[in-house]
């Protein structure tokens, strides 16, 4: 579905992503993991057109999208849910969701999409007319993902969906991501919670200093000596307890 070839992203003279190659197959969860500043978000933003690629090519469903405006990439079927949620807190839950539907959505499609969102996130139905800033952190994250789903994505890109959430809520967010995938959603997941990301993904890429340093299935990376030493540590021993 997504094929990234030789991607380089730079901010002035600072190169954030070096000659990155990555692909996402339809129906998969693919995780992009690594420390802060590794270039994960820059990679995702280049795919969605929010930052330009200095070099390289990006193909989506066989069509080259490098250099296209972000709103055109969105209409092509790529939706990014940003780090930090970035919902419109001064607006209602309803208005946030309707904004996600984007231009051109007719009323019947919107009603159908709202019902689908409510199936995934029943709390949003209950809080539909309330102002978004009254939601908890976990509910705001649900709203951000639900807003993305209103755009009918073919590829849903999630940037740090567990960031800043309590452990119990983190577990619910990852269960929700798994449920979306089980219903056919293709997901590119940027996540610092390496333990949980590797346990739900089909394929994973480890980034460090703007480069891919290791790749494989989620299971392969979960058992990688580099991953265990640098990212999982003693948490791996808790796998059977979770």
Question: What topology does this entry show?
Answer:
Elements lengths: L1 E10 L2 E11 L4 E5 L6 H8 L7 E6 L2 E2 L5 H7 L1 E4 L11 H9 L5 H14 L1 H5 L10 H13 L5 E5 L7 H16 L3 E5 L3 H7 L2 E6 L2 E7 H5 L2 H8 L10
Parallel strand pairs: 3-8, 3-9, 6-7, 7-8
Antiparallel strand pairs: 1-2, 1-4, 4-5, 9-10
Describe this structure in words.
With 242 residues, the chain is an alpha/beta fold. It has a domain at 80-152. The chain contains ten helices and ten strands. It has helices at 40-47, 70-76, 93-101, 107-120, 122-126, 137-149, 167-182, 194-200, 218-222, 225-232, and strands at 2-11, 14-24, 29-33, 55-60, 63-64, 78-81, 155-159, 186-190, 203-208, 211-217. The strands form two sheets. A six-stranded mixed sheet has the order 6-7-8-3-9-10, with helices on both faces. The chain has a four-stranded antiparallel sheet with strand order 2-1-4-5, covered by helices on one side. Helix 3 packs parallel to helix 6.
Structural class of the helix and strand makeup? alpha/beta
If you compute it from the alpha carbons, what radius of gyration comes out, rounded to the nearest whole angstrom? 18 Å
Major sheet strand order: 6-7-8-3-9-10
Helix content: 25-40%
Approximate shape: globular
Query: Main β-sheet, in a few words?
Result: 6 strands, mixed
Number of helices, where a helix is a run of at least 4 consecutive DSSP H or I residues: 10
Percent in strands: 25-35%
N-to-C SSE series?
Answer: EEEHEEHEHHHHEHEHEEHH
């Amino acid at each position: 579905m997504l094929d990234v070839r030789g991607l380089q992203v730079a901010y002035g003279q600072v190169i954030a992503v070096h000659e990155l190659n990555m692909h996402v197959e339809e129906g998969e969860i693919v995780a992009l993991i690594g420390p802060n500043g590794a270039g994960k978000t820059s990679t995702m933003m280049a795919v969605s057109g929010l930052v330009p690629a200095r070099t390289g090519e990006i193909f989506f469903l066989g069509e080259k999208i490098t250099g296209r405006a972000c709103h055109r990439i969105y209409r092509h079927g790529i939706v990014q849910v940003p780090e930090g949620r970035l919902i419109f807190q001064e607006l209602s839950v309803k208005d946030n969701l309707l904004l996600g539907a984007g231009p051109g959505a007719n009323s019947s499609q919107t009603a159908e999409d709202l019902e689908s969102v409510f199936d995934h996130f029943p709390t949003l139905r209950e809080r539909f007319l309330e102002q978004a800033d009254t939601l908890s952190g976990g509910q705001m994250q649900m709203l951000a993902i639900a807003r993305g789903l209103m755009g009918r994505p073919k590829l849903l890109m999630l940037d740090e969906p567990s960031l800043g959430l309590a452990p119990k809520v983190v577990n619910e967010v990852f269960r929700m991501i798994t449920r979306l995938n089980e219903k056919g959603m293709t997901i590119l997941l940027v996540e610092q919670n390496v333990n949980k990301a590797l346990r739900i993904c089909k394929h994973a890429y480890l980034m460090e200093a703007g480069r891919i340093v290791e790749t494989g299935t989620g299971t392969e990376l979960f058992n990688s000596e580099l991953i265990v030493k640098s990212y999982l540590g003693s948490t791996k021993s808790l796998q059977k307890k979770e």
